[in-house]
Amino acid sequence: MDAMSDSEIIREKLDQAVEILEEKGVDVWITFVRETSQVRDPCLDLVLGFDLTWQSALMISRTGERIAIVGRFDTDNVECVGGYTTVVGYDQSIRGLLMEHLTRLDPRQVALNFSEKDPAADGLTHGMFRTLTDMFADTKYASRLVSAEDVIGALRGRKSPTEVACIRAAIQDTEAIFQRIGRLIRPGLTAREIARWFHDAVAEAGLGLSWGDDYCPVVTPGPDAPIGHAMPGDFVVQRGHLLQVDFGVRKEGFVSDLQRTWYVLEQGETEPPSEVLAGWEAARRALEAGRKALRPGVQGWEIDQAARQTLTQAGYPEFMHGFGHQVGRTAHDGATILGPHWEKYGASVDGVIEAGNVFAIELGVRVPGRGYIGCEENVLVTPEGAEYLSEPQMALWTI
After folding, report:
1. The pTM of the whole model exceeds 0.90
2. CATH number where 251 lies
3. Residues 166, 295: one domain?
4. Structural contact between residues 259 and 376, judged by C-beta atoms closer than 8 angstroms
5. Strand partners, 259
6. Are residues 200 and 250 in the same domain?
7. Reduced to 3 states, what is the DSSP secondary structure of residue 78?
């Protein structure tokens, strides 16, 4: 994405942030950062799009004001974004300017980027939090600090049309690479060799990976290879076995996250054996049950329950992870998770689905002696339900 397009999205998100602050009844939201090339607040991608050096306060008010207080040598870059009504530079200390604007706005709540349930809303470091509370210590604002998690969750989750178009483009490139490499896969290859092909294809296309290259893609051939976030190893593609790949690309700042599954035919076989086909159909039905339950106003755990019950009622073990997570600027994009009420997910599964959310929905089953079937697609929540952004794999692919 060029700088102009990137700034366009930032301006869209800043406008959206003002609307969300009004909706949530929050007066001021501050993203407070420094040396972001070392420790980067995830919200910086939403409200600015590039790194800052000195202590910087990006303030958004429900009145519509957007105030950037940054080091003097960052002011020109911030001005170029075009989304801030006031850009102020400083030389020695941010304290005076920050307190001047805060006093003028006189907010009843000051929302900051800390959260116990959403990592995408937890970008304020402990040290920077202490710096702020020291500045506020003798003021009435010390008792008005609240978490910005609801604001950030809505802002990050409600994808603009431009953001959806970027995600769709990343998905299309991912699907093209799956098709290209799928034609090359044959018995005797190792997971590590197949992963290298994916890396080469990404580099040739000038793309990035959706997550770390050590396990993007995840390549799972046969019944003995580990599933999940496993690094590709020396497990070999063999006839009579399944091959599952979990992969996504980063394009112009947005990512995809898809899984595809093949069955390697035995000599003389024209289709997969019945137990493999049964596992595939059960996984697909469960995925579709979850997608059909995914609509605005429903809580995350309810979507997971619809998919999980469909799979277990078909006689398969429940999957030991959540059914879905948001996708956007990262593969796990924060806020509401489509998952069960397990302690590790906390309150994230109680979040309410909203139109504009983009989710990766996923589950799988093991077929004894054959391997793992993984189904994962990317969907957009609309006012009516959830539509596929990816071209869903409706049938098990064969090699």
Report:
1. yes
2. 3.90.230.10
3. yes
4. yes
5. 246, 376
6. yes
7. helix
The Cβ of residue 68 has, within 10 Å, a number of other Cβ atoms equal to 26
Angle, CA of 386, 249 and 283, to the nearest 5°: 45
Paired tokens of 169? 């483009």
305 plus 328 within the same structural domain: yes
What is the length of the chain? Answer: 399
Structure tokens at 322: 């959540």
Start-end of H helices in the chain: 3-24, 44-47, 75-81, 95-105, 126-136, 149-157, 161-182, 191-204, 274-293, 300-313
| DSSP output for 170-227 | HHHHHHHHHHHHHTT--TT-BHHHHHHHHHHHHHHTT-EESS-TTSSSEEEETTTS--
Looking at the structure, tell me whether residues 248 and 366 fall in a common domain.
yes
Burial of 257 (0-12, 13-18, 19+ CB in 10 A): buried
The pairing of beta strand 397-398 with beta strand 258-263: parallel
Task: Answer for the pair 354, 70: CB distance below 8 angstroms, yes or no.
Answer: no
CB 202 within 8 A of CB 209: yes
Q: For 190-215, what is each residue's pLDDT tens digit?
A: 999 999 999 999 999 999 999 999 99
Distance in angstroms (rounded) separating the CA atoms of residues 135 and 94? 10
Dist. CA 349–CA 261, nearest whole Å: 28
- Of 183, 194, 295, which is closest to residue 244 (Cα–Cα)? 194
Report CA torsion sign: 274, 275, 279, 285: positive
Are 349 and 341 within 8 A, CB to CB?
A: yes
Looking at the fold, whether 186 and 238 belong to one and the same domain comes out as: yes
Residue where one domain finishes, among candidates 107, 132, 156: 156
Please name the residue that has the structure tokens 């909203």.
354
Among candidate residues 121, 156, 191, the one where a domain is terminated: 156
Token pair for 143: 């008792």
Q: Which residues pair with 363 in a beta bridge?
A: 375
For the segment 122-169, what is each residue's pLDDT rounded down to a tens digit?
Answer: 999 999 999 999 999 999 999 999 999 999 999 999 999 999 999 999
Query: 6 pLDDT band (50/70/90 cuts)?
Result: confident
CB neighbour list of residue 261: distance below 8 Å, 6 or more residues apart? 242, 243, 244, 245, 280, 372, 373, 374, 375, 393, 396, 397
